[in-house]
Design a protein that fits this description.
By secondary structure, this protein is α/β, with parallel strands linked by helices. It is 31% helix and 19% strand.
Length: 166
């Protein structure tokens, strides 16, 4: 069965200096507004996710909730693997289990450079640190059949938010 992964970077977040820790930084009003517009456009394009998997950080959870509120999915799950510098191997184990249960479209909400590196790992088998994902941007990757080695995926979408906000 074909599986599509949509890697979504969180929206514009508050400055680092205003919060005790990076984990607490929320979306700004502009980040919230732009992310809602992006979500609305994704719905117009007919996207639906079986599940939205999100980083535990506030700004990522807020982004995931915006996607949920736009009716892009009915379920959110928090994954520590999607936190900054999270472990793709942990996520790949989760992915195998999810695929076995019949999942076909998944949104991952997280952070850069991790999401770009994860996309590169899925596509090329290694992170090359060349894919840049803008805030509220999206990378779409189609995974090979179960049992195929990592690095055989195909990127079908790389969109900064400005192309979805017009």
């Amino acid at each position: 069965m074909s599986v599509e992964i949509y890697l979504v970077r969180h929206g514009i977040a508050a400055d680092r200096g205003k919060y005790a820790s990076d984990e607490e930084r929320p979306l700004t009003q502009e980040g919230d507004r732009k992310t809602r517009k992006v979500a609305k456009q994704l719905l117009k394009l007919g996207l639906q996710f079986d599940i939205i998997l999100t980083s535990p950080l506030v700004r990522a959870r807020q982004t995931a909730k915006i996607l949920l509120a736009a009716n892009l999915s009915k379920k959110i799950e928090i994954s520590s693997a999607l936190a900054p510098q999270g472990d793709i191997k942990t996520w790949l184990k989760w992915l195998d289990s999810w695929r076995q249960r019949g999942g076909s479209k998944l949104a991952l909400v997280g952070h850069q450079p991790d999401l770009g590196n994860w996309a590169e790992t899925l596509i090329w088998g290694e992170a090359r640190e060349v894919l840049v994902l803008k805030k509220a941007g999206i990378i779409g990757v189609s995974l090979p059949e179960i049992g195929q080695p990592i690095g055989n995926s195909q990127m079908f979408w790389l969109t900064p938010p400005k192309f979805l906000l017009k």
